[in-house]
Amino acid sequence: MRRPLVPFLVAALLALALVVPGPADAATKRRKKKVRRPVPTPTERPYYGPPAPTPAPWRRAAGACMEYTPGQYLVVAEVGATGRVFRVDGETKIETEVRKGLRVRILYVDRPEGPVARRILPGPIAATPPPRTP
Length: 134
Known about the structure:
Blueprint: H1 6-19, H2 23-28, E1 59-69, E2 73-77, E3 84-94, E4 103-111, E5 114-122
Parallel strand pairs: 3-5
Antiparallel strand pairs: 1-2, 1-4, 2-3, 4-5
């Protein structure tokens, strides 16, 4: 005997109607508008290099002045270290006051007879905190 197809067709259409969204559901779904967000302005990264570029043939040294004889030599040392002697000649540019105890920076050239100072610059100055006022 043959079974009637109508109940199976009705069941299949009912299942299909439940699964597939109807036109009313499609109309209620709204697409979100694409919001354009502001693009940050690119900024140049800071340059973290040497504090002052040194000319190619020169080298750098820094420390406290231990002894200075004008026109002859300058002895520079850090705390707890042995001093280094730099010759001072006519080509040496002295751009700061040089006296015992002051910190100086020296740009020098290495020669077979020893280092010769080319520029004597002021050294770093320790920042003193401002006095407290009540």
